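User: Here's a chain of 204 residues. Predict its fold as tokens.
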Amino acid sequence: MAEPTTRDQILVEARHCFAAQGFEGTSLNDIAAGVGIRRPSLLHHFDSKEAIYRQILSDALAEWGDQTEAARNSESDGWELVDSIVAASFRFFVANPEIIVIVRREAMTDQSPLGFNLGVALRPYFRRAVTFFERQMDQGVFRRHDAENLVLTGYGALLTYFSDHVMLKGLISEDPFSEASLEARFEHMRSFIRAALEPVGGAE
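Assistant: Prediction complete.
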């Protein structure tokens, strides 16, 4: 495997810093020190802290989009398609806990350092999901719900488990990010979502 480039190392260290300290609490000197380079060397790769932050968010959204799109491009439909997308999203969150913290902060402010509106960026995915569920409900594949609220509920259930990990460590008696805990959480979410979607009277 090729050694990570200096640019890659800057992005990795910046993710650590932004997740731990927030955008305002992180300086270019913090990032450079974590990589083991000087600030001028960092500025050779990125001309500002905003540029680093923008790249991190852009890369994360692109990676998540690619993974969920790959799940959508399978031959599955109905519950199998939902299950594939939930699994892809869960795997992404497990692999990128720092991104979840950063995104959570973005979701809670209307003063992004980039003038970046996370909701606007995610809206095409949201509308596609709502349209899919409405179509499946019309066809009798899924139980009737308000599709927008259904998607928002799924979003909240998935995201908060990863973004609120500090609270969860005090709330439950085991590490919420242990392999066993993550597996149990994933299986619970799958069962819960499937039960909510299954038509009244059971699957056809």
